[in-house]
Specification:
This protein is mainly α and 190 residues long. The protein is built from eleven helices and no strands. The two termini are 23 Å apart.
Length: 190
């Protein structure tokens, strides 16, 4: 059902991150990805679900999802934070070292203290280049480091800056993720 999540079970994904005890109990070895997502959704374990999806989607789709999710809060982002989101979308459409290094600068300037800065970090950690200064020997990121930053960006944005719309935000962000995971191209083309 989810063309863009190439895993058989939710447990394969759950074991890649620190999840809640409730999620650990719900997601058994036999539960497929679709049913795992549904179980987390039904139990409103949004924080865990965001992490599961972030670890299931390929890098470009995960970053695209986070960028669109963060745009749900455009009313609170500064100009620089909006530039982080825009640069991430540019990277997805045209992956380049220039966009990746620009994202690194945004992440550093914003001190990883907001959803857009974590999105910028996800772009920088996407796996296409070294995560140290260009004049140093290459150091590649761990394979799913970008997933942790994607989840951080979506989960951080759900909570901060403080507001009353956390649950609505999660529901909209998860809807966007599942559309992308299903292979819906409408968000991919925007």
């Amino acid at each position: 059902m989810y063309k863009k999540i190439p895993y058989k079970t939710g447990r394969q994904l759950l074991d890649r991150f620190s999840s809640s005890d409730e999620a650990q109990e719900l997601i058994t070895e036999e539960l497929n990805v679709h049913d795992s997502i549904q179980a987390l959704l039904d139990n409103k374990l949004y924080f865990d679900l965001v992490q599961l999806i972030a670890h299931g989607l390929p890098v470009r789709e995960a970053i695209w999802w986070a960028a669109h999710s963060l745009e749900l809060r455009n009313d609170v982002w500064s100009t620089m934070q909006k530039q982080c989101i825009s640069t991430a979308k540019q990277w997805v459409k045209s992956p380049s070292e220039e966009h990746r290094r620009k994202s690194e600068l945004f992440a550093n300037r914003l001190n990883l203290n907001c959803g857009p800065s974590w999105l910028a970090q996800a772009v920088f950690w996407n796996g296409s280049g070294s995560i140290v200064a260009p004049d140093l020997p290459n150091v590649m990121p761990d394979p799913f480091l970008y997933s942790k930053a994607v989840a951080g960006s979506v989960n951080h944005s759900a909570a901060l800056p403080n507001w009353e719309g956390t649950n609505d935000y999660y529901q909209q962000a998860i809807h966007i993720a599942l559309e992308i995971a299903s292979g819906n191209t409408s968000k991919e083309e925007s």
